[in-house]
Amino acid sequence: MDHKSDTENTPQKQDGGQSMWGGRFASGPSAIMQEINASIGFDKRLYRQDIAGSKAHAKMLASCGVISHEDYDAIVGGLDQVQEEIEAGKMVFDPALEDIHMHVESRLREIVGDAGARLHTGRSRNDQVATDFRLWTRDAIDALDAAMGKLLGAIVDQAEKHAAAVMPGFTHLQTAQPVTLGHHMMAYHDMLSRDRARLRDCRTRVNESPLGAAALAGTSFPIDRHMTASDLGFDRPMSNSLDAVSARDFALEFLSTLSISAVHLSRLADEIVLWASAAFRFLTLSDGFSTGSSIMPQKRNPDAAELIRAKVGRISGALQGLMMVMKGLPLAYSKDMQEDKEPVFQAVDDFELCIAAMTGMIEDLKPNTENMAAAAGQSFSTATDLADWLVRVLGLPFRDAHHVTGAVVKAAETLGVDLKDLPLEAMRTVEPRITVDVYDVLSVQASVSSRTSYGGTAPENVTKAVAVARAALK
Ligand code: ARG
User: Fold this and answer.
1) What value does the mean pLDDT take over residues 165-187?
2) pTM given for the model
């Protein structure tokens, strides 16, 4: 890092910078003070929200008679110009002006003079930054909501295509019972739609306006907070000024919903990594979502899936980081809260990329259904079907049926065959009442087709679930 000497003070800026608050100061802050204080390096991402918030505030001030309509017109024209300049890359970002709020306001004052200096009436940077950040978070939620919709659509497409394709279902990563690939995909659909619902629910608490809470106590100007709230698309103004400027649980809640969803993405990503391995051979990743090895020419690596699996570390790290920033802070605003934005920006960037990469991988996914089906029939995966048959047809209590089945599995294991290939005689030495009908339930296809209980893996259930999901996604 290139620190200037911390005893070297920056001169008072004539226009903007310390003129925003430096009335009682004889000299400017030291270089180190400026470096630790400035947030412009990251909060410039809030420029659009900051300008929108300022326009709404100015409009309300004019409508309440706090500033003139001429001043309002000048402010709006000036803010439009500031926005154009920022978007054209013409704004010079200067750490002396600390943050995006001071940059916008200072440039506005350069453009429109006194009118610009009246904008900050009945407002503080404390309610301003909370407002901007909530607007930004709301926009992020809406963008992620749309991206998740696309991912869910891709998952449902695959589920529909493979509604009847059989694969081994696992517990403890040991073959347990056959399931359908469509059912497995729909499990992720259900998980991720809960994440999306959490995101939408979180939005209702994000979408409240702190604007007009001023520094912490409200203001003596006759402002109308309901007007600015509704102008900015907020559901309502926050009802307590101290809470309005110091609450960051909206960001914590947002980060926790992203963290939970990133955990879900990591599970799906991990299955893709496993399934693409030579040991499983359940799927082939497209060229677009594989990478090669610089030394082993035969390799096809699932890097995107691995990175999605890893990103949950950064995303949940962002949540932990902000939790610790907020812990023990007294009311109302403290500068600590300036540290709220980077974790949220980072988590949103990471999460957005994860969703996009996962969507691409799922769209391109080529399951190797033959290998899946072969694996589904191995490891005595229909043993439970045999036990259920003993209960249903012979009237055995389930615990006894479980025991008999165990002995039959042992016999099959000794002969080195699957259950469906075990001779009837071998089964009858264990339980003489077993008949040839038992083979009807021992095939993988019969097994999955029989699981029609609500939420079960039967292909007809998957098809129904897909239809319900499609209707909800519309
Ligand atoms: N850059 C600050 C932040 O992000 C803005 C609010 C500053 N308020 C203050 N009273 N210094 O939190």
Assistant:
1) 97
2) 0.92
